[in-house]
């Protein structure tokens, strides 16, 4: 038995122990990302999650070429069992966001009406604009549907994307790119659009567009922005769940 | 990345954190109840389990049925891991790389362009809408909008 065969057996779902490869690969690529992020002093394309995604796909692609199978087949057989185990932990991690929200309950209680109204109205306006931008860019309906729920956190956005006829993998990628872009562009955008003139608005905007990275960015602007962003990260997921399915069916996307 | 709220002051009195297994049990219980509620919603209006769990957890905390010290440690741990937990959902694209090339070579570029624009749209629109609503509640309802 050559060691290529041995390695092939280790990746064979029937042999067992298969889930370890996915978990191991995820950890390694993420740690490489963290290391790159550190040595490049926070270059925006070196965000650990983004590096993890690109490098993970690249390594899977290399291995699939080596074993002479297609990339989706190899992904399904070798990575998915382990990836699914890690992915499951997004469920408790998502409900854990209730705790930072509760910690800022003083602010949330005082402004809950403004926050909820702003997020719902802002979300509807954004959806209309995103819909027409995507339409103008010539994307097909499945891709447009995938673009709509990206403001929600990944664990919420993916099932909604699938329910409105989108591709949940594309939505997950959009969520990751959102964070990368906000990390890179937030300072410029805030200056150009004078967003910081209303600290509450800047906070909610950053939390919506940049997820947890956006809320880390907002903390640098001030404690009000930070509090609002961490509220927005949580509340927008619920708003997306309420707003996106009716919007998508209104636009006959599925 | 999201652990920035750890330094935020908590209003409740200092308390020893509950044993980690009890904290896990609370999370498991909330998730289990949510997973029972989630299928009750129609397919055209899906409410994923984490959304229900999020609301349920917040309601339990706000109604003081659960104290902060009973879930805090577990929650901070999970939130500190969140970026890593997103890796499998990103790698999932390996399954769908064909969407970049299916409708011609430009689709992939356009898809990225739309994501970039959508990020900017979300940030700017939400910020301006909020500024608008804050202005209304300041000028029309004479509500103080100082946050501190």
UniProtKB/TrEMBL annotation, chain A:
- Membrane-crossing ranges are 15-37, 44-63, 85-102, 111-134, 154-186, 227-248
**GO CC annotation, single:** membrane
Q: In this entry, which stretches build a coiled coil?
A: none
- Pfam families per the record? LrgB
The membrane-topology field of this record reads: Multi-pass membrane protein
The entry's localization annotation reads: Membrane
The answer to whether the entry has keyword Transmembrane helix is: yes
Q: Which domain of life is it from?
A: Bacteria
Keywords (alphabetical) are:
Membrane, Transmembrane, Transmembrane helix
* Name of the protein in its database record: Antiholin LrgB
Specify the species: Secundilactobacillus collinoides
Automatic annotation (TrEMBL), chain B:
> Which Pfam families does the record match to this protein?
LrgA
Which segments cross the bilayer?
20-41, 47-66, 78-97, 109-136
Q: How does it sit in the membrane?
A: Multi-pass membrane protein
One annotated GO molecular function: hydrolase activity
Principal localisation: membrane
Q: Where in the cell is it found?
A: Cell membrane
GO CC term, one of those recorded:
plasma membrane
Keyword Magnesium in the entry? The reply is no
- Keyword annotations from UniProtKB, A to Z: Cell membrane, Hydrolase, Membrane, Transmembrane, Transmembrane helix
Entries under PANTHER family matching the protein: ANTIHOLIN-LIKE PROTEIN LRGA, HOLIN-LIKE PROTEIN CIDA-RELATED
- What's the name of the protein? Effector of murein hydrolase LrgA
What phylogenetic lineage does the species belong to? Bacteria, Bacillati, Bacillota, Bacilli, Lactobacillales
